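U., I forgot to send this yesterday:
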Amino acid sequence: MRVCILGSTGSIGTSTLDVLSRHVDRFEVFALTAHNRVDELLAQCLVWQPKFAVLPEPAQAQALQARLREAGSTTAVLAGAQALCEMASHPDVDAVMAAIVGAAGLPPCLAAARSGKRLMLANKEALVVGGALFMSAVQEGGAMLLPIDSEHSAIFQCLPEDRSAWCRRIDHIILTASGGPFRTRDVNTLSSVTPDQACAHPNWVMGRKISVDSATMMNKALEVIEARWLFDLKPEQIKVVIHPQSIVHSMVVCRDNSVMAQMGTPDMRVPIAYGLSFPERMVSGAGLLDFPALAGLTFEAADLERYPGLQLAWETLRAPEGSTAVLNAANEVAVAAFLAGSIGFDRIHEVNARSLESVRPEPDECSSIEGLLELDARARRDATLHAERLAQ
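Result:
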């Protein structure tokens, strides 16, 4: 199986390569892409010798190409957003790991879907922004859509392979959340949280943007939206509970009130390996869950005062189409402003809420990728203004 990894230098990308290293007889790395970690991409190319590598800017690509040639590598380096789409839809690619963070991952995800690839979706924004358009591309292209987020993979693993049976089995689903690093911190002190504190996740090793989303629970808000599309659910069929140990990755509550849960150590290599091998299972490299060593598993209600952004998920799913794209764009701007030190941690939600109030999606914006990207850009401009005002 020939694999294209979109975002190979991030945490999902490196974990994917780790899994692939255990099964070199089954997989070939066809293409690797990165945003700005050129040295890391160079090292990956020298190990895996992909046919292609992709970087955003031509100058970056030319510099990497020269270094690869000097090292004797035959990897061809391409540049730009169109090159990402070309790799995701390349006829020689069988499977695409979509691990680009943010709305930038939507076009190559759509390209992979329309080309009928095995699409392993770690980019939740493709569904948060694309929604109906993305799912239509999956259906029309005949793609195999496999969720990689640990929560959605858990739900997927609890369901039968026959997707037509899902609606007959599910009463509702429960997405678990660790609660992040501030689960027990005094809410009145959250305004003084620093970026380094927000990025210190207690259970998972992730990038800085995703770590901040976990601390605010906006990652769970986006996962609620993603679950609505992945499993064709109504907003009220998606619940969230806090599970600090991150052992139960999510649950399906069946119509007879029995509960199916997927459990394991908090290691992204498990859902990655399942996505690569589905419907089979293969060695992932993750550690075995040691039940006697577990001190206990606990569950708590999600505190919406501590995590006000979580409520925005259900609100935007009931709002006009495109509202979820506005929420995603505003959140990316707000998190970037927080990480840059421009706004406080407690202001992230304020930027998101204000943007949802001021940006109204037009009906025709959600019918095409061009319209969605324009809506995304419009929401970013609006959120930037809100963040700048709050920074004053």
